[in-house]
Specification:
5-stranded antiparallel β-sheet; alpha+beta; single chain; globular; 5 helices; 168 residues
Length: 168
């Protein structure tokens, strides 16, 4: 009798890591997240792509000298939430529209939007921002991206950035 032995899938759990806002830090974020997901017995492909894109954005667009970015994975039931926080709340990510001509960059959030059931941005505490994405761990997730509506920029955040308020 052959029985496949599988680890039970995590129903809840949390993993957090803080890394340098560099290309190496972004690559390490993807590797560590993939290993954590594997240890929880969760699907890897979509989540590792989302972590890679959000971490790369944090390292490239969220870079502030001497400041790190943080990755947080949270499993709650059949949902995996990926959060990447960086120290550049003044620079919000924008979804680039599909272009006819090939481009080397600017399509990462399109990938996040395609793989996640929901995604968005949270401000604060100043000067931070957190870009988050939720992935359904079952095949029944409804794709309802909220990223574009969640990207409204608050004038209070802009004023604080102009006055050089530091944090993170």
């Amino acid at each position: 009798m052959n029985r496949e032995i599988t680890q039970p899938r995590a129903r809840s759990g949390q993993f957090a890591v803080q890394l340098s806002a560099t290309r190496r830090g972004a690559r390490l974020a993807r590797l560590l997240a993939t290993e954590q997901l594997r240890s929880w017995g969760l699907p890897l492909d979509d989540a590792s792509h989302v972590v890679a894109e959000l971490a790369a954005n944090a390292a490239l667009h969220g870079y502030v000298p001497g400041r790190d970015f943080r990755v947080l994975l949270t499993v709650d039931g059949d949902t995996l939430r990926i959060e990447v926080a960086d120290a550049r709340g003044d620079q919000l990510p924008r979804v680039q529209e599909a272009r006819a001509e090939p481009s080397e960059c600017g399509r990462g959030l399109l990938l996040v939007e395609a793989l996640a059931t929901r995604w968005g941005i949270e401000h604060g505490p100043f000067p931070r921002k957190t870009v988050w994405a939720e992935i359904a761990l079952t095949g029944s997730g409804n794709h309802d991206p909220v990223g574009r509506d969640a990207m409204k920029y608050d004038a209070v955040d802009r004023d604080a950035a102009a006055h050089g308020v530091k944090g993170f």
